[in-house]
Write a structure and sequence with these properties.
The chain is of the alpha+beta class. The chain is 35% helix and 9% strand.
Length: 135
């Protein structure tokens, strides 16, 4: 869903919050810099201590993302109840944590939409298709 299995994928293009060595315009989009990097689209502004590993290493990208997801699943991200959210954050809601990864919030509209897309791709087993590529 995030990168179509390409570590070189960059996303969430913004005018600020750029990682070191990647000022606006450096990566091919005038006035913009990518904030998200790699196979799981780890977001630099929230994971600065993981830089540049999240951009350069698939293993670091995955380890960092899954550590965050596990923290969410285990119930350690209680801050999710202090920002705009829908329902109450709690441990054990794997789909809530998938949505949080995308939206940074608990079961909000954008989080729910992302969850629906992920579930759709899982049902379709899109990665098993001979012509698997980004739609």
């Amino acid at each position: 869903m995030e990168s179509w299995w390409r570590q070189t994928t960059m996303g969430d293009w913004e005018t600020s919050g750029c990682p070191p060595g990647h000022p606006p315009g450096h990566d091919g989009k005038p006035g913009l810099c990518p904030q998200s990097w790699g196979v799981l689209q780890n977001r630099y502004p929230y994971e600065q201590t993981s830089w540049p590993g999240i951009a350069n290493s698939t293993a670091m990208n995955a380890d960092t993302a899954y550590a965050i997801w596990r923290s969410c699943y285990d119930g350690y991200e209680t801050w999710l109840n202090t920002v705009p959210h829908v329902g109450t954050y709690h441990a054990g809601d794997e789909w809530g944590c998938v949505g949080r990864w995308f939206a940074g919030r608990w079961h909000t509209g954008p989080a729910q939409q992302y969850i629906r897309f992920v579930k759709k791709y899982l049902r379709e087993r899109i990665w098993t298709k001979p012509d698997f590529q980004q739609p």
